[in-house]
Amino acid sequence: MNILILGATGRVGSQIVTYALHDRHQVTVLVRTPEKIQINNENLTIIQGNVLNKDDIVRAMLGIDVVISALNTDGTTTLSESMPLIIEAMESESINRIITIGTAGILQSRTTPNSLRYQSSESKRKSTHAAKEHHKVYDRLKQSTLEWTIVCPTYLPDGESLGKYRVDSDFLPEGGVEISVQDTAEFTFRQIKTNDYIKSRVGIAY
Length: 206
Prior knowledge:
- This protein has a single domain (2-205), classed as Rossmann fold (3-Layer(aba) Sandwich).
- 29% of the residues lie in helices and 20% in strands.
- The protein contains 5 helices and 8 strands.
- It has helices spanning 11-22, 54-61, 78-92, 129-143, 181-190, and strands at residues 2-6, 26-31, 44-48, 66-69, 97-101, 147-153, 166-169, 200-205.
């Protein structure tokens, strides 16, 4: 399978690249700083570019079967500004499947009906910037024709891969407080082979 991974130099994204190459897929990454990718693999194609540049995104999409986005917010609006460009390029290239990393803040609240977690007392985060950015992405994907899945981890320590965790469609598993970067990446990568969570958010926690 030909996989485009965005956010490939981040904590989760770099792990997804490792999983995809280990599984012998053809992997393309679009990165601003190619020297941050310390992997030498004949199945890896590194394209220097910016997700806010429409031409760079279109170039990276050529021949791609599925897109995995592990772009994060980093206090900017890059996430919400890039998603319309990504969706447009995918629809233009007839690429249907996208799996993105979100945040538990955009899952449904169990305590406040019709609200998302970050809008309710369920979320303990003081800053809502990241959740608002991911909320915009969620709204954009819902309006698209794509087959999307948003993986929504809660607190993300580096930790080890346990390989055992709980998932819940549209909600955070009850009492879930953390999930490692490695397990989040592994679950996200596995979504390329399943239709279990099409057009759905998935909460993931131990």
